[in-house]
Design a protein that fits this description.
With 138 residues, the chain is of the alpha+beta class. The chain contains 5 helices and 6 strands, in the order H-H-E-E-E-H-E-H-H-E-E.
């Protein structure tokens, strides 16, 4: 939505004269998620984060991980607001990946876009996790 049109839309919404199409919100969420994934991939690719190699859209048996660092066993998932069905799917994926020895870090798209530095700090902390010993590496 353009910056020029948005105030008029809000005004119409307050008066009850406009309701967005049902598909508009999921479309916006998909755009946010893809923007967050693009930003995060730009920060992770080519060993840009402390020399760790990440892969994008990596298939682990039957589950697709958004990002994975195989050398540390870290899976990074980016999501927006989850419906109950999607939350159940995410929990199943997380349980499966953790049963295979991966640590799963779930990030909200908004945090990736707005709190990028904090997200990178969380990733650095998670990358210190030792998959073999289940604790922090030295």
């Amino acid at each position: 939505m353009s910056i020029v049109v948005e105030p008029f839309i809000r005004q119409l919404q307050r008066r009850g004269e406009y309701t967005p199409a049902p598909q508009a919100r999921p479309h916006i969420q998909r755009q946010l998620r893809s923007a967050a994934e693009r930003l995060l991939w730009n920060l992770l690719r080519d060993r840009r984060l402390d020399g760790h190699k990440f892969r994008r859209q990596y298939l682990i048996e039957t589950w697709l991980a958004d990002f994975v660092c195989l050398e540390t066993g870290l899976v990074v998932e980016v999501h927006s607001t989850l419906t109950p069905a999607l939350a159940a799917h995410a929990d199943a994926r997380r349980s499966f990946l953790e049963s295979r020895g991966f640590k799963v870090l779930q990030l909200r798209d908004r945090d990736v876009l707005v709190e990028t530095r904090a997200v990178l700090d969380m990733l650095r902390t998670a990358l210190g996790w030792d998959a073999a010993g289940g604790g922090r590496s030295s």
